[in-house]
C-alpha cells in the first residue's frame, strides 16, 4: 500500500503546476473563479495554449499528437487544472470523437479529423439524445437513408452541449429499422453548415444557454462520413462511453468547490459571527469533506485498477453516483451559506459596492440549479445503479 | 377537531385558485416574474378587489381575516400559481401597522404598496444584529433583499434607536432604492438609507417585528405546500406518460418508492403548516412557526431535487413550468430564516 | 380548522387520565418504563383491570361488550395509556380476532369466542406468516383438508408473536390448491392443546423471546371452527388488515420515546456537560421532534378522515412508514446517547450502583435492535410503498 | 501509488482469514461471544502463534509490524469472522507499553492479557475529563466498559496525576473487577479502583494515549470494513435466493438501487480506512483517523439497518449469523468515539 505518487509523477505534477502558473492567463482563471459559463473566446484561447504545449488531447497516444500520458498523469493534470481554475477542456472533440476515430476511423478520417481537433479548427458537438431517447438511447429515431453516395438524415437531436459554438456534429442515427434496436444504429460525422440543419437554443433552469436542439430535415451527408461499418454505431457508442468515464468522479472540481465553500463560510457573517463558527453549518461542511476525502482514495483505487487492467470497469458507476452527490452537496452548501444574497438574478445586477455576495460568489444559486444536471446527464444516477445491479452486484 | 375549512375560507380559496388559474397562468407568471418591475399592477388591483389583501388583516383594522388559516389559504393558492406579486411584504406590513396603531386603509385596498425592511446583509434573519440606526427623525444603514421593495410606496424599516429596536415608516421616494429580480422570480431591492427622513411609528418594536416575521414565515410555509402539491402532481403526470425502455417510467419500482416518500413528506409539510397556523396567536407561536419552517425547508428541497431528478432533462429547462416551481421551492429557504436557523430557534425555545 | 378536542372529548381524556392514575399499578408502569418485554402475568393483570372497567376491547361496539368509542376517543385512550406507561394491549384477541368474529362469525362463535377474549380466559395468537410467505402472504402453503366434520391441518406458521403465552391460534390455511392463490384461503380457529401442534421459540436479534414457529402435523380441528365461508379467508384477512391499521402511527409511543430521550440526554454527561447541550445531539433530537409534531397532526387528519368516512384509507400506509421511521430514529438516539453504557448484555448484569446507564435506560440498545422489526412486520415499509404506488400515487 | 498489499501482509491476511474461517466459524463465535469468559484461551494462543499479536507491534519492541496497514489487515480479518477476542486492548496496550519503554514480550507471545482502561462513565471518549486520580503509588476511581478487562492480567490505566495525565500499570488481581458480556458479543469490565496499588509507567501520557486511541479507532474501522463486506455478501446472496411474489426479491428495482448505494458506501468506508492507515504515523493522524471513524459510523449503521430491512424477518433472528454482524456494526460506534464525537474532532482539528 502506497498512496503517494512516484518521484516521476511528482516531477510531472510540478511541471504541470509551473506550466499553469506561467501559461494560464489571469483573465481566464478569473472568469472560471467567478462561476457561470465561460465564453467561446476564452475556451478557444485556453485550448490553443494547451494545444501548443501538446497537452490538449490528454487521452491520445503520441502517434496521433497526444502526450501519451498514463491514467495517473492525466489525473494529476486534471487535478492541477482544477486547482489553478483553468477552464474545463470541452470534451466532445478531444475526449470523445478523437478516441472513436482512432479506434474505428479509416486512414482518411484519421488524417482529416484529428489534426483539426488539435488545432481548434473544428468544434465538435454530440448528437446522441433525442426527445424520446434519453436514458433509453437505443430507441433513437433519427433516420439516415442511403441515397447513392450520400445518406439523407431526418430527425431531431437534443441536449447538444455547446452546439452553438460548434461547426461539426457527430451523430448516432438509425440505418436499419428492423431487428434489435441496438443493431440498426450507425455513427456519422456531419458538417453543421450542411443545408437542412437548424439549431435552437434550450434555455436552462437557471437561465443559461449551454444545450441545444438540432433539427435535421433532408440533410445530405457524404457516405464517407460514416465511421466504422454501417450499423456498428452501438459498439462505437459503448466504446466511447468507457472513455467518457475516466475521471468521472470529478474530484478536482469538488476539491475546488470545498475550498470555495469554506472560504465563503469564513466571509459570511451570521448572527454576529462568521458562518463557519456555526456548529451546524460547520458540521455540514465537515461531513462532505470526509466523504470527499474518501472519494479521493476511491478514485485513486479505481485509477490504479484501470492502470493495471487497461480499462475502467463497471465500478466507475460508483464514481459517477457518489461524485455527483458530493459535488451537488457542495453546491447546496454554497447556496445556503449566502442566505438572501444568493437570490439576485441575473447575478451581475448587483456588483461592486452594491454586491450582496462576497466576490466570485454571486453565482452560487445558479450553479446549484445548473449542477442538478450532473446526476442526470451522461447516464443518470438511476441508470448507473442499474449498471451496478447487473455488473457489480450480480442481482 | 375539524380539519375542514370554514365556508368563508373555502370560498376565498376557490375564488383565488380559480382567478389565478385563469388570469395568472404559468406563461403570464413567468413573464411577470423575471421582467422588471416583477409586478402586474392590474392584477394586483384585481387581487385586492377579490379580497385577498383584506383576508390578511383582522376586522379591527379594516380587514376580514388575519388569522393563521386565512394566511395559509391565501398563500397556498399563491404558491399553486407561483404568483410573484409582493404579497409577503403586504402581510407583514399589515401586522406591523396594526401593532403600531397606524391606519392601513391604503394597504388593504391595494392603492399603496408596502414593503418591510428588516434584514441586513450581515443579519438576514435575526433581529439582534441589526445595524441600521436612527438619529432623530432620520435613518442610516442598508437593508438588503427587501422583498417587493422595488415597487413599494412605503417602507417599514426596523432600526436601532438607543436601546430599543424601533419601527419607522420611510417614503420610498426619500430612500435610495436599487431594485432587482430574483432567481426564483419576483423583485426585491437594496435600500440605502443615509440620514433619510423617517417617521417613528413604534418605539419598542421587537415583539411586533417577531410577530410579523413569524406570520411571514407561516405564509412561506403555506406557499411551499401549494408549490409542492403542484410539483408533485406534475411529476406523477410525467411518470405516467414518459416512456423509456418501452415502459412508462412510473412503472419502475425504484422511482415509485421515492415518490411514496415524497408524498409522505408533503403530507408532513401540510400538517406542520396547519399546526403553525393554529398557533399563530398563541404563546408558543415562535416555536410552532420555526418547527414548520424547518420541516418545510427540508421537504421543499427534497421535493424539488427529487422532482428534477426523476423528470430527467426536461425538468432542467426553463420552458418546462416545473423548473420554476423547483427554483421557488429551493429559494424559499433563503427567506425569513433557513432550515438551520429555525432548527436552532426550536432548540433555543425548548419545550413549549 | 380546529385542532383541539371538543369539551366532551376533553372530559373523556380527564376520565381516562384519572382512571390510569388510580388503577394502573405502579409495579406495572415501572416495568414498562424500564423497557424490554412485559411478563405474561403483568399483561394479564392489566388486561383484567381494563376488562373490569369495560375498556379492554376499545374497538368493539357496545353490543359485544366494547365501550362503543369513536376513533377520536380510542386515540385519546391510547395516547393517555402511553403517557402513563401502561402496557400495550395485546392486540391479537381484542383488536384482530374480535372484529373478525363480529363481522364474519356465526352466532355460536360470537357467543363463545368474544366473552372469553374479554375475560382473559383465551389468549389468542396469530397464524398468518410462513417461512415462504412473508410479504407475499397469499403464497401460504399450510393445508387444511376436509375430513368428515373436521379439517386436518399440516404445515408451518412463523413469527407468531407471544404464542408462548397463548392457548388459541387463528390461522390462514389453504383449502383449495388450484385457481388464484388468494381464492383458496380460509380462516380457522385452532386450540393450541390439539395434538400435533408444536410451538418453538424464535430467539430474536437482541436475545428476547417474543415470536415463535408453530408446526402443524395432522392436526384435527372441528369444521365448525371455520370463520365465514370456506375460501373466504383472504377477504377476512384484508378486513382485519384495515382494523390493524388504526393508530398505526403509534404517535403515543413516539411521544413517550421523545420525552425519554430528552430526559436521558439531560442526564448523560459528555465532555463535562449534559449531552443535551451538545449542539449536534440537540439538533438530532430537535429534528425528530419536528417530524413527530407534524406526524401528530398527520395522524389526527387521517383520524378525522376515518371518522368522517368510516374506514381508514390507503393513506394509512404513510402513517406506518413515517411512524416507524420516527420511532426508530428515537430508538437510535437513545442508544447513541448512552455511548459505551448501551453495551452490557444482558442489561440486568449491571444494576444498582454498578449500573452504567441512568435508571430505566439500560435496555436502549436492545430496544433499538428489537424495534428494527417495526418497519418489517405488519406489512413491511416496502409493501406499504407498493400499496401507496397503486392506491395513492396511481402509478 | 500502489493499492495492493505487500507479500508479507497478503500472507498474513490469507493465513488469518483461513484460520478464522476454519477454527472460528460462526457457531463457535456465537458461543464464545455471549458466554463468559467471552474468550477462548486456546484460540488466543493459536492466534498468537500465527503471529497476529506480533503483527500489531514494530520490530524495535519485539513485533514485526505495527504500521497502519498491519493493523488494518489483522482487524479486517477479525471483522470478517466477528472474532470477539480482546485484540483491541492488546493493540492499544502494545502502543502504550512501547511509548512507556516497557517490555512487552508477555503481551506479544500471548501469555499475558492486557486491557486498556481509559474511558469513564462521564468521559467515555475523551481525555480531558478523566476523574480517576493518582495518590502516590495508588489509584482511585472507576473505569467503565474496559474491553477485555474481564480476562486481563494487567490493566493500563489513565489517571490524573497532579497536572499530568499519567499512565499506570495495575495488576488485575489488585483491582475490583466486574466482568460482563456485551450485546454485540465479547466481554468488558467495570474496574473499581480504591487506593489500588499501581505502578507509574509514563508521567506525561497524553500523546501516547491519543496515539493508542487513534490506533484503536483505526482498528475498529478496519474491523467494520470486514464486517460490512461479509454482511453485504450475505445480503446479496439472500436477495438472489429469496422468492416473494414468484420472483427473487433481488429482482425488485427498489431494493437493487438501495444495494447499489450500500456498495458505494462500503467502498467509501474501505477508502477512508486505507487513508487513515496511511496517516497513522504522520502529523495529521488524528484528523485522518477521526474522518475515518466518522464515515465508518455512518456507513456501518446504514449497512446494518438496510441489511436488516431487506432481509425481512430472518435478519431479526438470533439464529441467522447476519443479525450478529448487524449488532457489531452498530455497536462499533459506541467504542472509542462515535460518529458525532469524531466529526467534532475533525472540525476542531480543521484543515490538515
Automatic annotation (TrEMBL), chains A, C:
<dbReference type="InterPro" id="IPR013786">
    <property type="entry name" value="AcylCoA_DH/ox_N"/>
</dbReference>
<dbReference type="InterPro" id="IPR006091">
    <property type="entry name" value="Acyl-CoA_Oxase/DH_mid-dom"/>
</dbReference>
<feature type="domain" description="Acyl-CoA dehydrogenase/oxidase C-terminal">
    <location>
        <begin position="231"/>
        <end position="392"/>
    </location>
</feature>
<dbReference type="InterPro" id="IPR052161">
    <property type="entry name" value="Mycobact_Acyl-CoA_DH"/>
</dbReference>
<dbReference type="InterPro" id="IPR046373">
    <property type="entry name" value="Acyl-CoA_Oxase/DH_mid-dom_sf"/>
</dbReference>
<feature type="domain" description="Acyl-CoA dehydrogenase/oxidase N-terminal">
    <location>
        <begin position="7"/>
        <end position="121"/>
    </location>
</feature>
<dbReference type="InterPro" id="IPR036250">
    <property type="entry name" value="AcylCo_DH-like_C"/>
</dbReference>
<dbReference type="InterPro" id="IPR009075">
    <property type="entry name" value="AcylCo_DH/oxidase_C"/>
</dbReference>
<dbReference type="GO" id="GO:0050660">
    <property type="term" value="F:flavin adenine dinucleotide binding"/>
</dbReference>
<dbReference type="Pfam" id="PF00441">
    <property type="entry name" value="Acyl-CoA_dh_1"/>
</dbReference>
<feature type="domain" description="Acyl-CoA oxidase/dehydrogenase middle">
    <location>
        <begin position="125"/>
        <end position="219"/>
    </location>
</feature>
<dbReference type="InterPro" id="IPR009100">
    <property type="entry name" value="AcylCoA_DH/oxidase_NM_dom_sf"/>
</dbReference>
<protein>
    <submittedName>
        <fullName>Acyl-CoA dehydrogenase</fullName>
        <ecNumber>1.3.99.-</ecNumber>
    </submittedName>
</protein>
<keyword id="KW-0560">Oxidoreductase</keyword>
<dbReference type="InterPro" id="IPR037069">
    <property type="entry name" value="AcylCoA_DH/ox_N_sf"/>
</dbReference>
<dbReference type="GO" id="GO:0016627">
    <property type="term" value="F:oxidoreductase activity, acting on the CH-CH group of donors"/>
</dbReference>
<dbReference type="Pfam" id="PF02770">
    <property type="entry name" value="Acyl-CoA_dh_M"/>
</dbReference>
<keyword id="KW-0274">FAD</keyword>
<keyword id="KW-0285">Flavoprotein</keyword>
<comment type="similarity">
    <text>Belongs to the acyl-CoA dehydrogenase family.</text>
</comment>
<dbReference type="GO" id="GO:0005886">
    <property type="term" value="C:plasma membrane"/>
</dbReference>
<dbReference type="Pfam" id="PF02771">
    <property type="entry name" value="Acyl-CoA_dh_N"/>
</dbReference>
Automatic annotation (TrEMBL), chains B, D:
<keyword id="KW-0560">Oxidoreductase</keyword>
<dbReference type="GO" id="GO:0043958">
    <property type="term" value="F:acryloyl-CoA reductase (NADH) activity"/>
</dbReference>
<dbReference type="InterPro" id="IPR037069">
    <property type="entry name" value="AcylCoA_DH/ox_N_sf"/>
</dbReference>
<keyword id="KW-0285">Flavoprotein</keyword>
<dbReference type="GO" id="GO:0050660">
    <property type="term" value="F:flavin adenine dinucleotide binding"/>
</dbReference>
<dbReference type="InterPro" id="IPR046373">
    <property type="entry name" value="Acyl-CoA_Oxase/DH_mid-dom_sf"/>
</dbReference>
<feature type="domain" description="Acyl-CoA dehydrogenase/oxidase N-terminal">
    <location>
        <begin position="6"/>
        <end position="103"/>
    </location>
</feature>
<feature type="domain" description="Acyl-CoA dehydrogenase/oxidase C-terminal">
    <location>
        <begin position="210"/>
        <end position="347"/>
    </location>
</feature>
<dbReference type="Pfam" id="PF02771">
    <property type="entry name" value="Acyl-CoA_dh_N"/>
</dbReference>
<protein>
    <submittedName>
        <fullName>Acryloyl-CoA reductase (NADH)</fullName>
        <ecNumber>1.3.1.95</ecNumber>
    </submittedName>
</protein>
<dbReference type="GO" id="GO:0003995">
    <property type="term" value="F:acyl-CoA dehydrogenase activity"/>
</dbReference>
<keyword id="KW-0274">FAD</keyword>
<dbReference type="Pfam" id="PF00441">
    <property type="entry name" value="Acyl-CoA_dh_1"/>
</dbReference>
<dbReference type="InterPro" id="IPR009075">
    <property type="entry name" value="AcylCo_DH/oxidase_C"/>
</dbReference>
<dbReference type="InterPro" id="IPR013786">
    <property type="entry name" value="AcylCoA_DH/ox_N"/>
</dbReference>
<dbReference type="InterPro" id="IPR036250">
    <property type="entry name" value="AcylCo_DH-like_C"/>
</dbReference>
<comment type="similarity">
    <text>Belongs to the acyl-CoA dehydrogenase family.</text>
</comment>
<dbReference type="InterPro" id="IPR009100">
    <property type="entry name" value="AcylCoA_DH/oxidase_NM_dom_sf"/>
</dbReference>
Amino acid at each position: 500500500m502506497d498512496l503517494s505518487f512516484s518521484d516521476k509523477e511528482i516531477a510531472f505534477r510540478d511541471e504541470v503546476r509551473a506550466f499553469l502558473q506561467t501559461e494560464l492567463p489571469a483573465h481566464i482563471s478569473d472568469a472560471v473563479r467567478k462561476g457561470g459559463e465561460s465564453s467561446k473566446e476564452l475556451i478557444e484561447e485556453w485550448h490553443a495554449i494547451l494545444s501548443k504545449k501538446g497537452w490538449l488531447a490528454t487521452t491520445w497516444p503520441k502517434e496521433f499528437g497526444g502526450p501519451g500520458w498514463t491514467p495517473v498523469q492525466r489525473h494529476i493534470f486534471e487535478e492541477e487544472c482544477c486547482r489553478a481554475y483553468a477552464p474545463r477542456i470541452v470534451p466532445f472533440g478531444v475526449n470523445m470523437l478523437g478516441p472513436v476515430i482512432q479506434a474505428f476511423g479509416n486512414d482518411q478520417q484519421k488524417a482529416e479529423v484529428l489534426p483539426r481537433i488539435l488545432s481548434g479548427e473544428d468544434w465538435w458537438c454530440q448528437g446522441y439524445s433525442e426527445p424520446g431517447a434519453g436514458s433509453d438511447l437505443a430507441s433513437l429515431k433519427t433516420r439516415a437513408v442511403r441515397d447513392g453516395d450520400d445518406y439523407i438524415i431526418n430527425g431531431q437531436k437534443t441536449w447538444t452541449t455547446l452546439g452553438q459554438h460548434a461547426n461539426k456534429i457527430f451523430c448516432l442515427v438509425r440505418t436499419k429499422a428492423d431487428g434489435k434496436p441496438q443493431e440498426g444504429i450507425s455513427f456519422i460525422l456531419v458538417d453543421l453548415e450542411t443545408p437542412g440543419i437548424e439549431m435552437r437554443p434550450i434555455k436552462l433552469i437557471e437561465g443559461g444557454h449551454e444545450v441545444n436542439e438540432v433539427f435535421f430535415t433532408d440533410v445530405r451527408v457524404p457516405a464517407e462520413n460514416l465511421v466504422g461499418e454501417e450499423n456498428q454505431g452501438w459498439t462505437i457508442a459503448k466504446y466511447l462511453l468507457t472513455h467518457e468515464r475516466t475521471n468521472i468522479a470529478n474530484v478536482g472540481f469538488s476539491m475546488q468547490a470545498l475550498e470555495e465553500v469554506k472560504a465563503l463560510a469564513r466571509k459570511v457573517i451570521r448572527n454576529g459571527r462568521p458562518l463557519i463558527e456555526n456548529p451546524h453549518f460547520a458540521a455540514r461542511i465537515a461531513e462532505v469533506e470526509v466523504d470527499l476525502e474518501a472519494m479521493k482514495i476511491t478514485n485513486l483505487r479505481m485509477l490504479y485498477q484501470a492502470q493495471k487492467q487497461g480499462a475502467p470497469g463497471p465500478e466507475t458507476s460508483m464514481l459517477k453516483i457518489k461524485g455527483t452527490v458530493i459535488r451537488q452537496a457542495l453546491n447546496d452548501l454554497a447556496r445556503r451559506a449566502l442566505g438572501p444574497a444568493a437570490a439576485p438574478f441575473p447575478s451581475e445586477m448587483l456588483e461592486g459596492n452594491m454586491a450582496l455576495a462576497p466576490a466570485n460568489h454571486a453565482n452560487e444559486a445558479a450553479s446549484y440549479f445548473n449542477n442538478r444536471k450532473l446526476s442526470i446527464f451522461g447516464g443518470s444516477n438511476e441508470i448507473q445503479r442499474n449498471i451496478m445491479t447487473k455488473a457489480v452486484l450480480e442481482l | 377537531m375539524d380539519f375542514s375549512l370554514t365556508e368563508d375560507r373555502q370560498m376565498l380559496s376557490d375564488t383565488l385558485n380559480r382567478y389565478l388559474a385563469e388570469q395568472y397562468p404559468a406563461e403570464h407568471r413567468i413573464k411577470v416574474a423575471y421582467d422588471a418591475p416583477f409586478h402586474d399592477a392590474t392584477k394586483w388591483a384585481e387581487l385586492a378587489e377579490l379580497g385577498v389583501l383584506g383576508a390578511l388583516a383582522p376586522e379591527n383594522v379594516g380587514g376580514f381575516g388575519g388569522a393563521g388559516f386565512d394566511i395559509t389559504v391565501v398563500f397556498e393558492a399563491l404558491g399553486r400559481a407561483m404568483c410573484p406579486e409582493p404579497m409577503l411584504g403586504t402581510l407583514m406590513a399589515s401586522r406591523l401597522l396594526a401593532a403600531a396603531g397606524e391606519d392601513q386603509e391604503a394597504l388593504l385596498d391595494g392603492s399603496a404598496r408596502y414593503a418591510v425592511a428588516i434584514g441586513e446583509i450581515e443579519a438576514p434573519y435575526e433581529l439582534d444584529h441589526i445595524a441600521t440606526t436612527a438619529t432623530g427623525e432620520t435613518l442610516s444603514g442598508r437593508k438588503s433583499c427587501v422583498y417587493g421593495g422595488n415597487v413599494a410606496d412605503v417602507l417599514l424599516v426596523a432600526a436601532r434607536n438607543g436601546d430599543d429596536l424601533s419601527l419607522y415608516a420611510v417614503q420610498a421616494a426619500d430612500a435610495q432604492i436599487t431594485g432587482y429580480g430574483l432567481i426564483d422570480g419576483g423583485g426585491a431591492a437594496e435600500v440605502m438609507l443615509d440620514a433619510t427622513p423617517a417617521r417613528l411609528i413604534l418605539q419598542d418594536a421587537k415583539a411586533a417585528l417577531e410577530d410579523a416575521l413569524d406570520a411571514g414565515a407561516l405564509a412561506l410555509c403555506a406557499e411551499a405546500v401549494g408549490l409542492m402539491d403542484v410539483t408533485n402532481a406534475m411529476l406523477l403526470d410525467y411518470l405516467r406518460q414518459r416512456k423509456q425502455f418501452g415502459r412508462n417510467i412510473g412503472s419502475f419500482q425504484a422511482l415509485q418508492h421515492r415518490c411514496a416518500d415524497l408524498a409522505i413528506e408533503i403530507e408532513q409539510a401540510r400538517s406542520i403548516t396547519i399546526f403553525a397556523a393554529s398557533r399563530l396567536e398563541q404563546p408558543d407561536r415562535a416555536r410552532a412557526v420555526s418547527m414548520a419552517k424547518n420541516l418545510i425547508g427540508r421537504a421543499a428541497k427534497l421535493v424539488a431535487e427529487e422532482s428534477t431528478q426523476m423528470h430527467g432533462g426536461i425538468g432542467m429547462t426553463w420552458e418546462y413550468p416545473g423548473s420554476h416551481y423547483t427554483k421557488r421551492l429551493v429559494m424559499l429557504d433563503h427567506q425569513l430564516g433557513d432550515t438551520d436557523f429555525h432548527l436552532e430557534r426550536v432548540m433555543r425555545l425548548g419545550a413549549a
